[in-house]
Specification:
Strand content: 15-25%
Distance between the termini: 37 Å
Number of helices: 8
Number of strands: 10
CATH architecture: 3-Layer(aba) Sandwich
Largest sheet: 8 strands, mixed
Protein backbone atom coordinates (compact mmCIF):
# COMPACT_ATOMS: atom_id res chain seq x y z
CA UNK A 1 0.00 0.00 0.00
CA UNK A 2 1.12 3.57 -0.65
CA UNK A 3 0.92 5.62 2.57
CA UNK A 4 1.16 9.40 2.54
CA UNK A 5 2.14 10.79 5.94
CA UNK A 6 1.36 14.48 6.36
CA UNK A 7 4.02 15.51 8.86
CA UNK A 8 7.69 14.87 9.46
CA UNK A 9 8.28 14.80 13.23
CA UNK A 10 8.83 11.91 15.64
CA UNK A 11 5.20 10.79 15.43
CA UNK A 12 5.36 10.66 11.63
CA UNK A 13 8.65 8.76 11.66
CA UNK A 14 7.44 6.23 14.23
CA UNK A 15 4.38 5.48 12.13
CA UNK A 16 6.52 5.30 8.99
CA UNK A 17 8.60 2.55 10.61
CA UNK A 18 5.43 0.56 11.23
CA UNK A 19 4.17 0.89 7.68
CA UNK A 20 7.59 0.14 6.19
CA UNK A 21 7.73 -2.93 8.43
CA UNK A 22 4.49 -4.12 6.80
CA UNK A 23 6.04 -3.73 3.37
CA UNK A 24 4.19 -0.52 2.50
CA UNK A 25 5.63 2.46 0.63
CA UNK A 26 5.75 5.72 2.58
CA UNK A 27 6.01 9.32 1.42
CA UNK A 28 6.34 12.13 3.93
CA UNK A 29 4.56 15.37 3.10
CA UNK A 30 6.08 18.53 4.52
CA UNK A 31 6.24 22.27 3.87
CA UNK A 32 10.03 21.92 3.56
CA UNK A 33 10.78 18.78 1.53
CA UNK A 34 14.42 19.85 1.18
CA UNK A 35 14.96 19.42 4.94
CA UNK A 36 18.31 17.59 5.14
CA UNK A 37 17.56 15.66 8.34
CA UNK A 38 14.29 14.26 7.00
CA UNK A 39 15.78 13.29 3.66
CA UNK A 40 18.65 11.54 5.46
CA UNK A 41 16.14 9.64 7.59
CA UNK A 42 14.22 8.55 4.49
CA UNK A 43 17.40 7.39 2.77
CA UNK A 44 18.37 5.37 5.84
CA UNK A 45 14.90 3.80 5.91
CA UNK A 46 15.35 2.33 2.44
CA UNK A 47 13.99 2.70 -1.08
CA UNK A 48 10.32 2.51 -0.04
CA UNK A 49 10.58 5.81 1.89
CA UNK A 50 10.54 9.21 0.20
CA UNK A 51 9.89 12.89 0.91
CA UNK A 52 7.68 15.36 -0.93
CA UNK A 53 5.41 18.35 -0.46
CA UNK A 54 2.08 18.03 1.30
CA UNK A 55 0.14 17.88 -2.01
CA UNK A 56 2.59 15.32 -3.40
CA UNK A 57 2.15 13.06 -0.37
CA UNK A 58 -1.63 13.41 -0.56
CA UNK A 59 -1.69 12.50 -4.26
CA UNK A 60 0.70 9.57 -3.66
CA UNK A 61 -1.40 8.14 -0.84
CA UNK A 62 -3.78 5.23 -1.10
CA UNK A 63 -4.13 5.78 2.64
CA UNK A 64 -3.08 9.01 4.39
CA UNK A 65 -2.01 9.80 7.94
CA UNK A 66 -2.35 13.24 9.53
CA UNK A 67 0.62 13.49 11.91
CA UNK A 68 1.19 17.21 12.46
CA UNK A 69 0.73 19.17 15.72
CA UNK A 70 -3.01 19.01 16.39
CA UNK A 71 -3.86 22.68 15.99
CA UNK A 72 -2.09 22.67 12.61
CA UNK A 73 -4.18 19.80 11.25
CA UNK A 74 -6.83 21.70 9.23
CA UNK A 75 -4.23 24.02 7.70
CA UNK A 76 -2.01 21.07 6.70
CA UNK A 77 -5.01 19.43 5.06
CA UNK A 78 -5.89 22.60 3.16
CA UNK A 79 -2.32 22.82 1.90
CA UNK A 80 -2.38 19.14 0.93
CA UNK A 81 -5.64 19.63 -0.95
CA UNK A 82 -8.93 18.03 0.00
CA UNK A 83 -9.42 16.82 -3.58
CA UNK A 84 -6.17 14.81 -3.38
CA UNK A 85 -7.54 12.97 -0.32
CA UNK A 86 -11.10 12.45 -1.57
CA UNK A 87 -12.30 8.86 -1.28
CA UNK A 88 -9.31 7.87 0.87
CA UNK A 89 -8.98 6.68 4.45
CA UNK A 90 -7.21 9.31 6.57
CA UNK A 91 -5.89 8.31 9.99
CA UNK A 92 -5.95 11.30 12.34
CA UNK A 93 -3.38 10.87 15.11
CA UNK A 94 -3.51 14.47 16.30
CA UNK A 95 -4.44 16.06 19.62
CA UNK A 96 -5.39 19.78 19.70
CA UNK A 97 -2.88 20.64 22.41
CA UNK A 98 -2.13 24.10 23.74
CA UNK A 99 1.25 24.13 25.50
CA UNK A 100 2.03 26.21 28.58
CA UNK A 101 5.37 27.17 30.07
CA UNK A 102 4.69 26.08 33.65
CA UNK A 103 1.78 23.65 33.36
CA UNK A 104 0.72 20.56 31.43
CA UNK A 105 -0.93 21.10 28.05
CA UNK A 106 -4.65 21.72 27.65
CA UNK A 107 -7.03 21.25 24.72
CA UNK A 108 -7.94 24.04 22.31
CA UNK A 109 -11.34 22.48 21.64
CA UNK A 110 -13.66 20.11 23.48
CA UNK A 111 -17.09 19.15 24.83
CA UNK A 112 -19.08 20.13 21.72
CA UNK A 113 -16.39 19.70 19.06
CA UNK A 114 -13.02 18.03 18.55
CA UNK A 115 -9.99 18.07 16.29
CA UNK A 116 -11.18 14.80 14.76
CA UNK A 117 -14.48 16.38 13.76
CA UNK A 118 -12.70 19.47 12.42
CA UNK A 119 -10.48 17.22 10.31
CA UNK A 120 -13.52 15.38 8.92
CA UNK A 121 -15.22 18.69 8.08
CA UNK A 122 -12.07 19.93 6.34
CA UNK A 123 -11.93 16.82 4.11
CA UNK A 124 -15.61 15.83 3.87
CA UNK A 125 -15.05 13.36 1.01
CA UNK A 126 -12.46 11.37 2.99
CA UNK A 127 -13.05 8.70 5.63
CA UNK A 128 -11.35 9.94 8.82
CA UNK A 129 -10.46 7.54 11.62
CA UNK A 130 -9.00 8.80 14.90
CA UNK A 131 -6.27 6.51 16.27
CA UNK A 132 -2.82 6.52 17.91
CA UNK A 133 -3.55 9.66 19.96
CA UNK A 134 -3.45 8.11 23.46
CA UNK A 135 0.02 6.51 23.60
CA UNK A 136 3.65 7.57 23.28
CA UNK A 137 4.97 7.32 19.73
CA UNK A 138 7.76 5.01 20.92
CA UNK A 139 5.06 2.37 21.50
CA UNK A 140 3.14 2.78 18.24
CA UNK A 141 4.48 -0.46 16.80
CA UNK A 142 4.47 -3.75 18.73
CA UNK A 143 3.87 -2.16 22.15
CA UNK A 144 5.67 -3.81 25.04
CA UNK A 145 4.34 -3.37 28.58
CA UNK A 146 4.95 -5.65 31.57
CA UNK A 147 1.23 -5.46 32.41
CA UNK A 148 0.19 -6.85 29.03
CA UNK A 149 -0.85 -5.43 25.69
CA UNK A 150 -3.02 -2.30 25.96
CA UNK A 151 -5.89 -1.44 23.62
CA UNK A 152 -6.08 1.21 20.94
CA UNK A 153 -9.31 3.21 20.87
CA UNK A 154 -10.53 4.33 17.46
CA UNK A 155 -13.53 6.23 16.13
CA UNK A 156 -14.84 7.31 12.77
CA UNK A 157 -17.99 7.47 10.66
CA UNK A 158 -17.15 4.84 8.04
CA UNK A 159 -17.23 1.15 8.99
CA UNK A 160 -15.01 0.11 6.08
CA UNK A 161 -12.37 2.70 6.97
CA UNK A 162 -12.35 1.53 10.58
CA UNK A 163 -11.94 -2.07 9.40
CA UNK A 164 -8.90 -0.98 7.35
CA UNK A 165 -7.38 0.81 10.35
CA UNK A 166 -8.14 -2.14 12.62
CA UNK A 167 -6.17 -4.40 10.26
CA UNK A 168 -3.24 -1.97 10.32
CA UNK A 169 -3.37 -1.83 14.11
CA UNK A 170 -3.39 -5.62 14.31
CA UNK A 171 -0.26 -5.70 12.14
CA UNK A 172 1.27 -3.11 14.48
CA UNK A 173 0.45 -5.35 17.49
CA UNK A 174 -2.63 -3.59 18.84
CA UNK A 175 -6.08 -4.93 19.77
CA UNK A 176 -8.69 -2.33 18.92
CA UNK A 177 -11.81 -0.94 20.60
CA UNK A 178 -14.15 0.99 18.28
CA UNK A 179 -16.06 3.63 20.26
CA UNK A 180 -18.29 4.83 17.41
CA UNK A 181 -18.50 7.88 15.15
CA UNK A 182 -15.91 10.61 14.71
CA UNK A 183 -17.60 12.59 17.51
CA UNK A 184 -15.91 10.05 19.79
CA UNK A 185 -12.82 12.24 19.34
CA UNK A 186 -14.42 14.43 22.03
CA UNK A 187 -13.59 11.57 24.41
CA UNK A 188 -10.30 10.35 22.98
CA UNK A 189 -8.59 13.74 22.83
CA UNK A 190 -9.17 14.48 26.54
CA UNK A 191 -7.87 10.96 27.19
CA UNK A 192 -4.52 12.26 25.92
CA UNK A 193 -4.59 14.90 28.68
CA UNK A 194 -5.28 12.18 31.24
CA UNK A 195 -2.35 10.24 29.78
CA UNK A 196 -0.07 13.28 30.21
CA UNK A 197 -1.09 13.84 33.84
CA UNK A 198 -0.72 10.14 34.68
CA UNK A 199 2.69 10.01 32.99
CA UNK A 200 3.89 13.01 34.98
CA UNK A 201 2.75 11.40 38.23
CA UNK A 202 4.30 8.04 37.37
CA UNK A 203 7.51 9.47 35.96
CA UNK A 204 7.31 7.67 32.60
CA UNK A 205 5.83 8.35 29.19
CA UNK A 206 5.70 4.62 28.45
CA UNK A 207 2.20 4.10 29.78
CA UNK A 208 -1.00 3.15 27.97
CA UNK A 209 -4.63 2.33 28.69
CA UNK A 210 -5.95 -1.21 29.04
CA UNK A 211 -9.57 -2.25 29.48
CA UNK A 212 -9.90 -4.95 32.13
CA UNK A 213 -12.80 -7.29 31.42
CA UNK A 214 -14.68 -9.55 33.78
CA UNK A 215 -14.06 -13.26 33.29
CA UNK A 216 -17.40 -13.71 31.53
CA UNK A 217 -16.88 -10.85 29.08
CA UNK A 218 -14.93 -11.33 25.85
CA UNK A 219 -14.22 -9.08 22.89
CA UNK A 220 -16.95 -10.94 20.99
CA UNK A 221 -19.61 -10.27 23.63
CA UNK A 222 -22.50 -8.02 22.55
CA UNK A 223 -22.71 -4.48 23.83
CA UNK A 224 -24.92 -4.06 26.94
Amino acid sequence: MKVGILGSGDVAKSLAKGFLGRGDEVRFGTRDPAKAELRAWAVSAGPRASVGTLPEAARFAELAVLAVPGVAGPEALRLAGASHLAGKVVIDVTNPLVFHEDAPPTLSVGHTDSAGEQVQRTIPDSQVVKAFNTVNNSQFVHPKFPGGTPEMFICGNDAGAKATVTTILKDFGWPTIDIGGIEGSRLLEPLCILWVHAALQLGSWDIAFKVVRSQSLTTESPRP
